[in-house]
Amino acid sequence: MVAADSRASMGGYISSQSVKKIIEINPYMLGTMAGGAADCQFWHRNLGIKCRLHALANKRRISVSGASKLLANMLYSYRGMGLSVGTMIAGWDETGPGLYYVDNEGGRLKGDRFSVGSGSPYAYGVLDSGYKYDMSVEETSELARRSIYHATFRDGASGGVASVYHVGPEGWTKLSGDDVEELHYHYYPVAPAIAEQVMEEATAE
Amino acid sequence: MSIFEYNGSAVVAMVGKNCFAIASDRRLGVQLQTIATDFQRISKIHDHLFIGLSGLATDVQTLYQRLVFRHKLYQLREERDMKPETFASLVSAILYEKRFGPFLCQPVIAGLGDDNKPFICTMDSIGAKELAKDFVVSGTASESLYGACEAMYKPDMEAEELFETISQALLSSVDRDCLSGWGGHVYVVTPNEVKERILKGRMD
């Protein structure tokens, strides 16, 4: 399950509330964007090109492990030049589901769950306390949505729309895209305040 | 990030027909992290005089306490409330006293003066007064607020229409600022009553 918010900010200014942070590398692999938008968009597209070339050269799809390694090696060669990329590569290959974290330092980690970005500590709190290895698709997508919502509430640089994608054996599908304002009032409805004293019209005598 | 952007804030005041409205956001943050969503930035000095302070939250609270103190002393001596113009001069003087180690806030003052004529003004952190006939803004979202107010403002609006206008201007501006928002607080003041309202806004 992959989820992301959709806010882009330049310092304090919100430049967009509708950025696609989940990048579709190919029909069975997704990448997430955190850090510099241009860097993430370019390098993910570049990765998509390399994956396609690999499939053409080897007559079979690249594994998630291989794709993430290609990206990590490419970013390592630009180490120290100021690229800002914090991404997760999620996909499905012959060995089953794969999730890797890759960053601009050239680091690459395999794991069951990750959270990346300025809002990641808040998302980790919700994600870690609600996570179990065997959860249904509905439970997992709700956990992912909640994690993103809580990150948008506490972090100033996160907001907009919480998108949730599911990655399965047949590839990825988009499950939902909810505006976090609606999620807030859905999770925490505003109870109408009961007035302690109600002023009434004075009757004429 | 500059020290004025440490906590994040947005304050706006608008003039209507024999009334005024003053509004602020409700977020208190430490840089990008949101700590509270019910921070009071606008304070009452007396029934027809309000001050909204943007900038560093600790100075917002301290400056408010000092101004209330000074106004209470004035009330004891003069046996009446301060006029808004006088209060603005007082705030300006208090800020300039700290010229070389200033309070890191920008006040927005709004009040009803003689004959219930609305008065608004804003100041920088060392007391430079700026009077306006229509609206004044302050805070991290000030540039967006200028744009929104300029577009939405009309002179001589009644209290209800003024409330709508100032609320829309505030909410649309803070939605373009990472550091302010998480709800809104609006006071609409007419000669007979003060209406305080909390706005439901985006909480991201």
Automatic annotation (TrEMBL), chain B:
The keyword Lipoprotein does not apply. Gene3D superfamilies: Glutamine Phosphoribosylpyrophosphate, subunit 1, domain 1 (3.60.20.10). InterPro entries: Ntn_hydrolases_N, Proteasome_beta_3, Proteasome_bsu_CS, Proteasome_sua/b, Proteasome_suB-type. Its main location: cytoplasm. Pfam families: Proteasome. Keywords: Cytoplasm, Nucleus, Proteasome. The keyword Transferase does not apply. One of its GO terms (cellular component) is proteasome core complex, beta-subunit complex. One of its GO terms (biological process) is proteasome-mediated ubiquitin-dependent protein catabolic process. It is found in: Cytoplasm; Nucleus. Component of the proteasome complex. Component of the 20S core complex of the 26S proteasome. The 26S proteasome is composed of a core protease (CP), known as the 20S proteasome, capped at one or both ends by the 19S regulatory particle (RP/PA700). The 20S proteasome core is composed of 28 subunits that are arranged in four stacked rings, resulting in a barrel-shaped structure. The two end rings are each formed by seven alpha subunits, and the two central rings are each formed by seven beta subunits. The catalytic chamber with the active sites is on the inside of the barrel. Belongs to the peptidase T1B family. Component of the proteasome, a multicatalytic proteinase complex which is characterized by its ability to cleave peptides with Arg, Phe, Tyr, Leu, and Glu adjacent to the leaving group at neutral or slightly basic pH. The proteasome has an ATP-dependent proteolytic activity. Non-catalytic component of the proteasome, a multicatalytic proteinase complex which is characterized by its ability to cleave peptides with Arg, Phe, Tyr, Leu, and Glu adjacent to the leaving group at neutral or slightly basic pH. The proteasome has an ATP-dependent proteolytic activity. This is Proteasome subunit beta.
